[in-house]
Amino acid sequence: MFGRKKKEQDFHVDDRLRSLAIIMDGNGRWAKKRMLPRSAGHAAGAARIEPVLETLRRIGVHHVTLYAFSTENWKRPREEVDAIMDLVYKYLDEVVIEKIKRDDTFSMKFLGDKSVLSEKLRNKCIEVENMAADREFVCNVALNYGGRDEIVHAVNSAIADGITTLTEEDISSRLYTSHSPDPDLIIRTGGEFRVSNFLLWQSAYSEYVILDTLWPDFGDKEIMKAVRAFYGRRRRFGGLNKEETLKK
Ligand code: IPE
Ligand code: IPE
Ligand code: MG
Fold first, then answer.
1. Ligand 2: does its nearest atom lie under 6 Å from the Cβ of 40?
2. Which of 48, 88, 187, 190 is deepest in the core (most CB within 10 A)?
3. 67 lines ligand 2 (CB under 6 A)
4. Which residues sit with Cβ closer than 5 angstroms to ligand 3, an ion?
5. How far is the CA of 212 from the centre of ligand 3 (A)?
């Protein structure tokens, strides 16, 4: 037991896994199981973020993208939306700002249209982004994020720049994620096999790992499970593996 724990402590990813994204799903079900309000599930979910980021950084991941709130999540009851937004504000103000001050390798960016957020939250997001740029570890938080919205936004920006025939690069460079590589691995907690409008463009060749674990229960054990599954995959990017080419 000790041996295995020790081995996991020393585990490091390589260049195949520098960018990882997580669809943090299952907060509501976690709360329901405990007969708590959904907002308690979101609070428990928020508490998992920092320890998960720390483990991912320790094992050598440099870019982590977290799905916090989608463009469709506004359809939820006002009370729940307000609770999530208050929680995000509090988390940035109390946890993230301190972390950025303490740790000069950590930075945070937000993906999504900030203009519909409350002025208070928008200013907090901008403050957090401006505190640290181009650091070794980047945490992207998808907030009011939708993959379709992001592509439309990128195309409109290209049109505004006078481009009439688009290349892939014209789009990629205008996405909210233009500063981060496409995710090698996308983990979805909560067991649903769907994309829910997350990183539609960037996930063209990402490996997906779906775990039944609900987000507030997600920890080091689940990270290692997902990472092991990732290393068991044979990524081909539409081509053939070396052995397959040799067989020919
Ligand atoms: C994910 O948890 C968090 C957000 C979408 C904000 P959910 O709130 O979707 O939890 P479930 O899927 O209902 O359990
Ligand atoms: C995806 O979860 C969005 C986030 C985790 C922020 P949802 O709970 O919104 O997805 P659906 O509605 O089950 O597809
Ligand atoms: Mg959900």
1. no
2. 187
3. yes
4. 25
5. 12
185-188 vs 137-145, strand pairing mode: unpaired
Find where tokens 């946890």 sit: 95
pLDDT band at 242 (very low <50, low <70, confident <90, very high): confident
- pLDDT for res 175: 98
Total-model pTM: 0.96
Which residue in the block uniquely carries the two structure tokens 């957020």? 117
- Establish whether residue 22 lines the binding site of ligand 2, counting it when its CB lies within 6 angstroms of any ligand atom: no
pLDDT digits (tens, 9 = 90+) for 157-213: 999 999 999 999 999 999 999 999 999 999 999 999 999 999 999 999 999 999 999
> DSSP characters for the chain?
-HHHHHHHHH----GGGSEEEEE---HHHHHHHTT--HHHHHHHHHHHHHHHHHHHHHTT--EEEEEEEETTGGGS-HHHHHHHHHHHHHHIIIIIHHHHHH-TTEEEEEES-GGGS-HHHHHHHHHHHHH--S-SEEEEEEEEE-HHHHHHHHHHHHHHTT-SS--HHHHHTTSTTTTSPPPSEEEE-SS----TTSSTTTTTT-EEEE--S-GGG--HHHHHHHHHHHHTS---TTS--HHHHHH-
Q: How confident is the model at residue 246 (pLDDT cuts 50, 70, 90)?
A: confident
pLDDT given for residue 138 in this prediction: 98
Gap from CA of 24 to ligand 3 centroid (Å): 8
- Measure 245 CA to ligand 2 centroid, in angstroms: 40
* Ligand showing the shortest atom-to-Cα distance for residue 67: 2
User: What is the residue with the minimal CA distance to atom 2 of ligand 2?
Assistant: 25
